[in-house]
Amino acid sequence: MNAEDVLETLDITSWTGPFDADTQLRAANALEDGRVLFLPRLPFEIRPDEQEFLTGGSGDDSRKNISLDPATGRCHGTSYQGDQLARLAAMIDRFGQGAEALLRGLVPGYAPHLQRARTSFRPAEIRGRDYSERHDDRLMHVDAFPTRPLRGRRILRVFSNVAPGGEAREWRVGEPFPDFARAFMPRLSAQLPGKAWAMNLVGLTKAPRSEYDHYMLGLHDAGKHDRAWQANSPQARVDFPSGTSWACYTDSVLHAALAGRFALEQTFHLPVEAMTWPERTPLRILEGIAGRPLI
Ligand code: SIN
Ligand code: FE
Candidates 3.90.470, 3.30.70, 3.90.550, 2.60.120; correct CATH number of 3-290? Predict the structure, then answer.
């Protein structure tokens, strides 16, 4: 596999459009087909009074992730305060708004369904850091989160590399999701009766885990723990240069982030009903393998 197999490149230069019908169709088809929409001519502009957030060495750059909750406007994971914090939050929020405008313009069918979740700023260098295997996103995985059951909703993410020194963000992108799911799902044990309810009761999850969430977490963990699969499964190396943006469904695009620093990321959740091709969603694919509904 090489980069051309997993990328759909759009030459757009505007976050707000308007985009022509051909561009819109290519965008929706590539995203739902499990490819990465690569936007090499769409930089996210950092303003002069934000440049300070792109310098190494300021205590905060060792953090993996500074996140902004759009519901509250609050930043998490930073020790900045006062005016600096306000400017950092404004930068992150501006990226989130740009990402939302981009998706509304590129896939108008998503607009009524787009749920904007957290926005993150990722200043820290990925290469050379210490992570536990389960938390190591340098290993190939699909995104699935233990505390946030999605009950079939999709995870669509928009990224920009804003590294001031020009460093690329290096990813590997793996095999098609159906191949991965067919190989790994039969190895997973079933969800224990009552467990999802009990975990939610004691506050370990924000909603009861559906069987879908159980299997997605199982796929995330089993893939990361399988060294032979990590080493030998089909994968393409993809470099996202500084000054470029990209978007993909990270619940179905197998990905690993190997190196890079200073990225922005916006997560959206979308219901399966918002898809142009619902049969391509992880929910429908896992249900097809299981032979029954999973939510
Ligand atoms: C990930 O979702 O695994 C990390 C992506 C990135 O930060 O580039
Ligand atoms: Fe991930």
Answer: 2.60.120
Residue with CA at minimum distance from ligand 1 atom 6: 257
Q: Which atom of ligand 1 is nearest to the CA of 159?
A: 8
Cα 154 from Cα 272, distance rounded (Å): 7
First to last CA, the chain: 34
Distance 291 CA to ligand 1 centre (A): 32
* Angstrom distance (rounded) from CA 76 to CA 55: 19
Q: Which of 160, 250, 254, 262 to mutate to test the pocket of ligand 1 (most atoms within 8 A of CB)?
A: 250
* Residues 99 and 70 sit within 8 Å (Cβ to Cβ): no
Task: List pLDDT tens digits, range 179-215.
Answer: 999 999 999 999 988 998 999 999 999 889 999 999 9
94-120 pLDDT, tens digit each: 999 999 999 999 999 999 999 999 999
> Is the separation of the CB atoms in 114 and 270 below 8 Å?
yes
Give me ligand 2 centre to Cα 217, in Å: 12
* Whole-prediction pTM: 0.96
Provide the residue type at 31 as one letter.
Answer: L
Fill in the amino acid letter for 22: D
Atom of ligand 1 nearest to the CA of 137: 3
CA of 70 to the centre of ligand 1 (A): 20
